[in-house]
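Usage example:
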Amino acid sequence: MDVVAGLGRVLPADRVLADPDAMRRYLHDEAEWAEYAPAAAVVRPRSTAEVQAVVRFALEHRIAVVPRGAGTGLSGGANALAGCLVVSFEAMDSVLEIDPAERLAVVQPGVVNDDLRAACAERGLWYPPDPASSPWSTIGGNVATNAGGVCCVKYGVTKDYVLGLEVVTGRGDVVRLGRRTAKGVAGYDLCALLVGSEGTLGVITEVTVRLLPRRAAERTIAGYFDSVVAAGEAVSAVAAAGVVPSALELVDRHCLEAVDAWKNMGLSVEANVVLLGRTDTPGDDEAATMLACFEQAGASWAAVSSDEHEAEALFQARRLAYPALERLGPVLTEDVCVPRSKVPEMLARIGKTAAAHDTRIANIAHAGDGNLHPLLITPIGDEDARRRAQAAFEDIIADALDLGGTVTGEHGVGLLKRPGLRRELSEPVLDLHHAVKAALDPSGILNPGKVFSRGTR
Amino acid sequence: MDVVAGLGRVLPADRVLADPDAMRRYLHDEAEWAEYAPAAAVVRPRSTAEVQAVVRFALEHRIAVVPRGAGTGLSGGANALAGCLVVSFEAMDSVLEIDPAERLAVVQPGVVNDDLRAACAERGLWYPPDPASSPWSTIGGNVATNAGGVCCVKYGVTKDYVLGLEVVTGRGDVVRLGRRTAKGVAGYDLCALLVGSEGTLGVITEVTVRLLPRRAAERTIAGYFDSVVAAGEAVSAVAAAGVVPSALELVDRHCLEAVDAWKNMGLSVEANVVLLGRTDTPGDDEAATMLACFEQAGASWAAVSSDEHEAEALFQARRLAYPALERLGPVLTEDVCVPRSKVPEMLARIGKTAAAHDTRIANIAHAGDGNLHPLLITPIGDEDARRRAQAAFEDIIADALDLGGTVTGEHGVGLLKRPGLRRELSEPVLDLHHAVKAALDPSGILNPGKVFSRGTR
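Running the assembly step on the lines above writes:
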């Protein structure tokens, strides 16, 4: 069957891309070394009805459907499968409604996270989830992966803000899940089930999110530490003091050195580990408490800043770490989450793993959440280094599980964490996953082979 | 088959009750007029293994299993079915662990909500969900119904605090869903799917909840209003001012009169509607803002209280309303939730419904959430009044749906809201519910007929 001709019968012609060059940028996300294959076509629908038409066409012809946001994913979840239809939501990018009285927004899936945040800010409202990809990533992709970010430690992740979804199911129906009211328990929480399901249970066509009022200005508390153990003690001390910071980020020596090599900020001279905390609770108490925690844990330097520019400069090191490391070669991004008290132990084990596999591993961590992002850097074109890095990647997963953690804190399973998922979940839980998948996508057309492999465990 | 003899072969004898008198108090919850029937036996297991033995026994003999917490439910969700096994968790009531560093607790399902809160408070921690039933209701029941409460308006509902569950599935397996880490996206959020599933998808045997640090002391802002419209304007003004109160409760004239008739507090002389707000944000700004909102909306009296006894006295009217009304006859409790800006319109419609059906309807509302609890009172033994009240109950549901609301904000579907659920959800969404139910409980033994009727839509 000629897929493109067939699509032309159910969609306006300009919705369908079939030229291999034009399709190339739609075939994968930003996961290093995750496999992908040529799609039969890329579809750019403009309405829910058009998405439904694509899914029904795919159902009729048993073609895989791969939904796609901005492609900033780091697990391969949006990677194309041979002969599939990639559905890109770039043309469904409208903020449909912002309701200050109900504190909610209704958006199409292609709306960029920062654009929603800006639109909310104009109305005195705030959409908290702030993945590092927020300048590019879309709400649809954020929902599909249950994206996290810096403010999660206090404000939770994407699922905590999704009130309702419009979804095209694997049966080809358009359904509304969830609600617009602040509370509601009518039926199963299928909306929560869809969040984080990585396109395998339904194609999201509209998202209703809960908003918060604009928050008070943040203060930043920065600390330089000689060791990850001392920084870890500072994190534990903050928790023990009863403070939930609005951010608590850790940047290690390898990141600081890479940033210095690029921007000459002189950070790695001062510190082996930088902790960056923030508080948005009114009053000065929390900032003072966090500062005291940093100092008591042995910070070589620590200070509170309420100057926005100064604070931004401090957070630069965290933001620049990833691009600074990418200058050195391909970066394979890990995303394990451990109990927060295990952060120092996990960082120590990552150091041992780096040595054992002769792999350069830098660390950014949402330390307050226990969510670590070891960044594995390999020289361009060095196949042996790549194999060593992949072995290190698996060892990090094993250590995270050993410490009571999870193989993915916020990036999703996609392709890269499928083996990890099988290690993390018991057989009966995997059976439940397959049963739920079969219930919502009986023909198996929705992003097949993602999260778990087709036909295998 | 002799069920009791059969159970005796898989459980110690003292776990099984079969005497009709002893079983009576286990046969229903507090939902007025919801049907129930004699059980074959009541089982009081002491371990997950014993729960699993019961479920496997039930699977083998195709007997319905009805899990049960304290029986404080208001929808009939825990009501016994003819010949079923009621599983009571009264003997599984241990707080297994409170971990201040990770800010989590692990509890057996039979732990009473207030007991968990007290145990957390001893460690400087706080478990927020605070249903009115908290002195009696259990965490297992709270999770099964996704219970709400007074602090939801700022702190969310039970599902926002459930990190992980141990569950016996309808296949007889013991599974762990969710996690102990602060974040995690490994696989589908089956934990969220189980929360609020009212015992129809699995039997909860252990709950891991997220905790918060002890919060700052609350201040109470009380306001007396002449009309629900004025009180509704105060609620809207608070939202527009960017304040998320830690409580915002409405008590109407009928409640005030019933409390006065019982306790002679003189409230109904002063006010037609009382609004009770609370704030726990440090500083005085929010209390001052809420007070100004109350006054600008036309409060005949309004004041901020930071005196705990004074504040408690003000909240007494809210707490006493239900027992005060019960003195007058059986109370059928509604639980609709509408967009918060629709609260005045919904209260006006409830007033019309009361008149049309000649039924006394008092209102308590979590006004900040749009979650209303119309309380329908009928004279004892008056069958005609009961029929009128039931008609009013259905009209209230229809009005809530008409205003974009839901048929149940926090009490669950159980038996009483099954017709409402069919009105609220579309056919394809109901199909998804049945598919998920079949996936997790293929033999249909788990609380069958609750949430949706057996074999029907």
